[in-house]
Amino acid sequence: CGVFGVYSPVPQDLAWLTYLGLFALQHRGQEAAGICVSNGEKLHVHKDLGLVTQVFDERQMAQFSLSDARVGIGHVRYSTTGSNLAFNAQPLTTRTNKGILGLAHNGNFVNALEVRAEMLHEGALFQTTNDSEVMLNLIARESTKDLVEATAHAMQRLKGGYACVLMSRTQLLGFRDPNGVRPLVIGQREDGAYVLASEPCALYAVGARLLRDVAPGELVSIDDTGLHSLMVEQHVPTPCSFEWIYFARSDSRLDGVDVHESRIRMGEQLAREKAVEADVVVPVPDSGIGAAIGYARESGIPFDYGLYKNPYAGRTFIAPTQEARELKVKMKLSPTSAIRGKRVILVDDSIVRGTTSRQIVNLLRDAGATEVHFRVSSPPITHPCFYGIDTAARKELVASTHSIQEICDLIGADSLAFISEQGLRDAIGGPGLCSACFTGDYPAGVPLLNDVDKLA
Ligand code: 5GP
Ligand code: SF4
Ligand code: MG
């Protein structure tokens, strides 16, 4: 998912600004979008299933925006916990003794169901299956604390990988889990407005410059007195390596590491580790482009666009069902003449289920590629993500049940190789990294309960 928040000292149309921010974060989730704004008195929210441009047409914007808003938050969703239902769309709002609150979150609280069970036991009510509601309820229950203290308390109760924006009518909060698994950055516009977003591309979209990343375990709050920071709890930082491999936009810079450059380094590393003779290096667009550039650069084999991507097609993986994903591959990709009669090195960022990869190898062979050597800029994904990236359940992960040779046969490639885990770490550089989906070593805990319907 993607989150966005803005606090403006000058009253202005923040729904519009949030819309622009969310549009820049659209790649982080296409299932639902929502915006919540307040001018200090009124608080308006609108959310629904669909893309940002579908959920917010002109009529909708005119109806719910406030010309004199001071605080706003927004969310784009791709479902991880809680299914693809309209009532799970965010921001989530609720009335508390601290006034109306709105929350938008990216990631997963691994113990949300335990906390939820305890709260249900004590008589709490839940409207959704969304774990954001657990966070909001925890905050609301700390009725004697102010909003910052109550939120810090909730951060200490809930474990996992998350980045959130929270608003009241007069205050904007942003916070990141103690491991910093999910990203969150702070920017500022020339008019003084502070902006929080999952990625810097959303700051630039609203004319803000990047100030810094929110630190792992940090809670920032912004109101009329400016920006304040509270360090709630800090662990060894382990930001999600998948942000650099695949998820983040290539023009983003997260925790000091440029995404595009890191992808090129992954490709260079892959070429050093897993060389093969061939005529052309072809990316699976768009997610394989950076690594393919690096692979070509390091190997000296020319880069070319061997697959045309229909720019009107969305991200296939994020389509919720297998059938939808398969149809979307055909809608999205078709081979160009660059591969005809050639030995092709096909570079992609990841193999998850292996179904897309198989279809793409087929496409290339049918179009006249003489050999297809598949190179992947992430290690084999053998474990599920519990921190908000929908890499599928373990049994669906082809690398959890198949050897590399078996996957190679399954996708019909002449050879298949993945970057090593150490190679990936070297290519990203920076501080620590979460690589639990490759190793099974989960730095921010694992869920004990996992069926919300068994609770209530
Ligand atoms: P597969 O061959 O495993 O079916 O699909 C692999 C493709 O899924 C890669 O091109 C990768 O870019 C794409 N993909 C899209 N979304 C995600 C995601 O959320 N996680 C992962 N791991 N891969 C994704
Ligand atoms: Fe990212 Fe994988 Fe860790 Fe999930 S398990 S946070 S996808 S590195
Ligand atoms: Mg891809």
Termini distance? Answer: 25 Å
Major β-sheet profile: 7 strands, antiparallel
Question: Structurally, how many domains make up the residues?
Answer: 2
What is the level-2 CATH architecture name of the largest domain?
Answer: 4-Layer Sandwich
Give keywords:
single chain, iron-sulfur, alpha+beta, 4Fe-4S, binds guanosine-5'-monophosphate, 2 domains, Rossmann fold, binds iron/sulfur cluster, Ntn_hydrolases_N, EC 2.4.2.14, amidophosphoribosyltransferase activity, binds magnesium ion, 30% helix, six-stranded antiparallel β-sheet
Explain this structure to me?
The chain has 456 residues and is α+β, with helices and mostly antiparallel strands. It folds into two domains: 2-234, Aminohydrolase, N-terminal nucleophile (Ntn) domain (Glutamine Phosphoribosylpyrophosphate, subunit 1, domain 1, 4-Layer Sandwich); 262-434, Rossmann fold (3-Layer(aba) Sandwich). Helix content is 30%, strand content 26%. A seven-stranded antiparallel sheet has the order 3-2-4-1-10-9-11. Strands 5-6-7-8-12-13 form a six-stranded antiparallel sheet. β2 and β3 (43-49) form a beta hairpin. α5 packs across α6 (147-157), α9 (259-273) crosses α10 and α9 packs antiparallel against α15. The longest helix has 15 residues, at 259-273. It starts with a strand and ends in a 17-residue tail after the last helix. The model has no long low-confidence stretch (mean pLDDT 92). Iron/sulfur cluster is lined by residues 161, 181, 240-242, 385, 387, 389, 391, 434-437.
